[in-house]
Design goal:
Protein name: Cell division ATP-binding protein FtsE
Structural class: alpha/beta
CATH superfamily: P-loop containing nucleotide triphosphate hydrolases
CATH topology: Rossmann fold
Helix content: 25-40%
Strand content: 25-35%
GO cellular component, one term: plasma membrane
InterPro entries: AAA+_ATPase, ABC_transporter-like_ATP-bd, ABC_transporter-like_CS, ABC_transpr_LolD-like, P-loop_NTPase
CATH class: Alpha Beta
EC number: 3.6.3.-
Number of domains: 1
Keywords: ATP-binding, Cell cycle, Cell division, Hydrolase, Nucleotide-binding
Largest sheet: 6 strands, mixed
Length: 223
């Protein structure tokens, strides 16, 4: 699905990440942790080809990311759902319209019943006609998750999805991500919240990765 072999990436001539090797297999669950500024967001951007490596092999569904054209990358991204840390929405569109936006942009049909079921699953059925500014922080994050999976992706990447949420809402969002994993989805969550990781590891088989000194490491059992 997503494979990195000795990948490096940098900005303006300085290397930010180096010697990154990882293979995300179908149905796996990963956490990515590390101090602020370590490069977690950069690593996620590599995983959906927002950034391309300066060296090494970056494979996306069997293709070398550096040889993929714009259309190939666009098609590949429909197979990867991304929950961004800032979860931007179009404030003049309803919650339902924002969630369905990936289908609208790609010209795919929107099944109103399936959309309603998805919003109900994330607990936003009552807010489907609301505008984004009317949502709480937890509701925005759940709407962002719904938008990320509206195309039925095989992989879900989440960048600090609980960073601005209280513990109760963090657990609610985590439970949704764990449910997706149990349905066979591959999940990778970037987070600095070790308590969240411990909570998940008690319920799912999760691999914990850490970025330190620009490199990817397997975190120890102390988590």
């Amino acid at each position: 699905m997503i494979e990195l072999q000795d990948v490096a990436v940098g900005y303006g001539g300085s290397e930010l990440l180096a010697e990154m090797t990882l293979k995300l297999v179908p149905g796996s669950f990963h956490f990515l942790t590390g101090p602020s500024g370590a490069g977690k967001t950069t690593f996620l951007k590599l995983c959906y080809a927002e950034l391309l490596p300066s060296s090494g092999f970056m494979g996306l569904y069997g293709q070398d990311a550096r040889t993929m054209g714009r259309d190939d990358i666009a098609r590949m991204r429909q197979r990867i759902g991304v929950v961004h840390q800032d979860c931007q929405f179009l404030d003049h569109l309803s919650v339902a319209e924002n969630v369905a936006l990936p289908l609208t942009v790609s010209g795919r049909p929107i099944d109103g019943m399936e959309l309603a079921e998805l919003l109900a699953w994330v607990g936003l059925k009552a807010q489907m006609n609301a505008l984004p500014p009317q949502l709480s922080g937890g509701e925005r994050q759940r709407a962002a998750l719904a938008r990320a999976i509206i195309t039925s992706p095989e992989v879900i990447l989440a960048d600090e999805p609980t960073g601005n949420l209280d513990w109760e809402m963090s657990l609610r969002l985590l439970s949704l991500l764990m449910e997706l994993n149990k349905l066979g989805k591959t999940v990778l969550i970037a987070t600095h919240d070790l308590n969240l990781i411990r909570q998940a590891k008690a319920q799912v088989s999760a691999r914990v990765l850490r970025i330190a000194n620009r490199r990817l490491q397997l975190a120890g059992a102390d988590l």
